[in-house]
Amino acid sequence: MKSVIVKAPLRCELIDVPIPEPGPDEVLVRVVCCASNPRDWKAPDHLLPGVEINQGNEMSGFVESVGRNVFEFRKGDRVAAAHPMQTANGTYAEFATAPANTCFLLPPQISFEEGCTIPFAGCTAALGLYQRLKIPFPTSPDNAALQPPLIVYGGSSALGCFTLKLAKLGRFKKVIAVCGSGRAYVESLGVVTHFVDYRKGNVVDDLKAALDGEKCFHAVDAINDGKSWRQLSEILELDGSISVYLPRLDYSSIPSSIYVGITFFGTVHGQPTPGWDRRCEEDVDFAYVLFRLFGKWLSEGKMSGHPYTVLPNGLASVEDGLRQLKEGLVSARKLIYRVADTPGL
Ligand SMILES: NC(=O)c1ccc[n+]([C@@H]2O[C@H](COP(=O)([O-])OP(=O)(O)OC[C@H]3O[C@@H](n4cnc5c(N)ncnc54)[C@H](OP(=O)(O)O)[C@@H]3O)[C@@H](O)[C@H]2O)c1
């Protein structure tokens, strides 16, 4: 089968490899669509230099076979799934593997294109909101309780939008999104009460104006550019919490009384968070529950995928997609690929 290897400096190679076998707790998926994430170019470029593998983590398709411990999925099921980061058999390929805890059945009305935008960013957003900021999960009796304001820095990023969609399942006094040209889509979600444009004015002053004296204990920093968490530190109460998403950075400028929850998608597959001593073993079963609810919420219209652009030529366009992400050209959308569009397949 064909598989895309991501190399550094950024370049992709389409190679022939054997079709993988699923592990005991995995499904093997015949990939119909796969999606790109910023980490896919960052990993070989500077996070883990020298490791050149298929970096895809998100996909939708048909179950081809299942491992011996998998009892909920069977050949032919339409699914969306997340593949463990930095492991073999990634999703930029004709076939890819995923643990069953990060796989869900796609409701019939949800397309493969929409489905493949959800597993990675949707799951990471839920980890940040519920496991690190400890906002009540939608099944908690406390979910009906009114929460203090929530700030989502990078509201139009995939991570930000899924955080906002999940926030809509709860109750917040205010939901403040920091975004720029992606505002229109964020507005359409119908959950944000106040917008701050990071390209104009003074973000800290604008956040203070939006809070209008309300205390803020919870912030999501989906941008992590240094400026973002320093600005949020000026706004958060000293016993507040912030969820950050780039584990290897130095967050020591955030006052020590503020809880810094490092959200790392790998914990749902039992991987340790780089530079953090917490193992977050509970995240494995959290993802299991979440992925089943993703299917249900999608079927009920309570959840939706991220807007997307399908690049032409399937897997042959992964390099172009990753380059667009690297150059910051993508606003409020996912770049996705239909495997069947790959020339020669
Ligand atoms: N720890 C993990 O496991 C994990 C998982 C997923 C993602 N991440 C990381 O989280 C970050 C977001 O990922 P993503 O996939 O959600 O990214 P994305 O969708 O590609 O982000 C693009 C968005 O970023 C917004 N943006 C750029 N600069 C901004 C700024 N200064 N302030 C506010 N918004 C800004 C743009 O907003 P406008 O278009 O509105 O200008 C654009 O819509 C990345 O750094 C990624 O590596 C980490």
Automatic annotation (TrEMBL):
Residues in Enoyl reductase (ER) domain copies: 7-330
Pfam family, one: ADH_N
Sample GO molecular function, one term: oxidoreductase activity, acting on NAD(P)H
Keyword terms: Oxidoreductase
CDD domains associated with the record: enoyl_reductase_like
PANTHER family linked to this entry: HYPOTHETICAL OXIDOREDUCTASE (EUROFUNG), OXIDOREDUCTASE, PUTATIVE (AFU_ORTHOLOGUE AFUA_8G01420)-RELATED
Family, per entry: Belongs to the zinc-containing alcohol dehydrogenase family.
Protein name: Enoyl reductase (ER) domain-containing protein
Species the sequence originates in: Cladophialophora chaetospira
